[in-house]
Amino acid sequence: MTDILLDYARKLVLLGGKLSAWLFLPMLTLVAIFDITTRRVLQLGSTPLQELEWHFFFAGVTFALGYAYLKDKHVRIDILREHVSPRTRLWIERILLVTVMIPFALVIIWFGGRMTWLSYVQGEGSRAALGLPYRWIVKATLPIGAVLLFLACLCRLLRPADEARSSIDDARPRPDRETSASQGHRS
Fold first, then answer.
1. DSSP per-residue letters across the chain
2. Which of 55, 69, 142, 157 could form a Cys-Cys staple with 152, CB 3.0–4.6 A?
């Protein structure tokens, strides 16, 4: 049962990453090109287009956070990480997931959801006179992205033991690789 739920969670996080890559990034690019072209060539500035660029950027980033973490493509500071064994790295990751990442995602879900709800109830729009209405739509991407990050954290935390072991084994130097590499440098 847990495997089925983790599989659904993983698919949902991957969908968020695909939405970021195939919807938000192309839309951001198209809107930015159109905005720059109309501003430079036709001398027409557009506040809604500039706001839309920021909205697509924000949605793209928030939807991609969980994907980047799940695929282990996020930025790491490897000052200590490279000096410990793979098994220690795995334990450090799991401890930090439980003490930092999961609580962080839950806080963002709670406060982001509250902020989105208040924006919806108040009918919040842009502060700019010609800006976009319905600010709650872009604010909703924050708790949605945090849910995707939370699911990615759960997938990494609860991944099967054999998958965790294989990631440890992949990080270990293999004798056949060391031998062939050292022989190649002798000549």
1. -HHHHHHHHHHHHHHHHHHIIIIIHHHHHHHHHHHHHHHHTS----HHHHHHHHHHHHHHHHHHHHHHHHTT-S----TTGGGS-HHHHHHHHHHHIIIIIHHHHHHHHHHHHHHHHHHHHHT---SSTT--S-HHHHHHHHHHHHHHHHHHHHHHHS--HHHHHHHHHHHSPPHHHHHHHHHHHH-
2. 69
